[in-house]
Amino acid sequence: MTTLSPTLQRLQGETVKAYKIRLCENKDTYQINWNQIADLINQETGDNFGESKYRKWYVNYKEGYEDAMIKGTSNLSSAIEDQTYTLHKERIKNQTIGVHINRIAREDARKEMLIEEFTRAVKENSLQPPEFHSLPYSTGDKGAVLGFGDVHFGKIFESVNNKYDEEEVRLRLADLFVQTVNKINQEQLTHLHIVNGADNVDGIGLRISQLMSLQFGLMDQVIRYQRLMVEWLNRLSTHVKITYHHVPSSNHTEIRPLGTKAGQFPKEDVERLIATYIHDMLANNQRIEVPQYKDDYARFEICGYRFYAKHGHQIKNVKTALKDLSMLHREFIDYLILSHFHHAEEITVGEGETNDCEVIILPSVMGSDKFSDKLLTGAKAAGKMLIFEEGKGKVTSHTLKLN
Ligand SMILES: [Mn+2]
């Protein structure tokens, strides 16, 4: 007997059945026929069956195997269908939940986005410090004017809102002193221009009826008042350097000798006496300068601006007065300061290179009286502190109330 190739021999641990199936399945590969298969198996089992026994057995076996395979596959696909359906259902469930979750998430996201946007805006717009420029350092000159007028010293009366006599004048000037010192400190002033707008004394009255409201005669008015002013200015100079501008002409202070009418002797005015007395008495005070004005107005400059000061009794039209005086004197006036009207006003009447040209009407120290009560034109007693800056003109106006 020839030696079998190893592949045709029963393998170690291989059952007879597995050996039999392997030979039948690989019949063509092994290039053997059914007789040879029968011999090989008979040899292993000790049987003596013909080739048809194994051939038929294998046909049945193979048929059964294939049937089982087909059935198995169909079971598998129905199982897959079931699984797919379940999965689909789960997906729908998840989608249903998802819609709800998405809505909540969307709302949360919107809220978060709002807060983030708000925080970003706050950071960008509010909390971001700007790039600081160096602080402007003003090299411009600063100037100040204290203006007061119409003291009408010597007048005594009691009206609806006012009571006036020498004692009241002294109290008001003391009050003006304190308020002025406060402003000097507040505005950090080293130099103060003072404009006295005249009608400092009440005179002897413009009508006979006014004689009734005089506390003293004209000479006593002048003597008492000029002493008071000298003392007042002397004390104020302990706080600041002063240039004192005294308007030398007004209606109550001009004297009308020999029955002359208003303005006929314009130089016969006691304001000139008062101004000259103040000038002479303060000559030794190095902190006070008193310019002497020969005409009926004061004229000076502050921060490069030209000022005129008049009483105002000759002025017919306040609004054109500044331009009219500029024409008359052939020079540009920036500020015209008037008194006389007993109520304050600051009127812009033109435009200069860097400033507004203004007519500034001072309030009165006297305030309202029976005459203004009758005309309903009264106003409170006050002085004014005006602040000017180089290149800007008037920047501040303080009212220093006195009653
Ligand atoms: Mn007057």
TrEMBL record:
Name of the molecule in the record: Uncharacterized protein
Organism: Brevibacillus reuszeri
Gene that this polypeptide is encoded by: yonJ
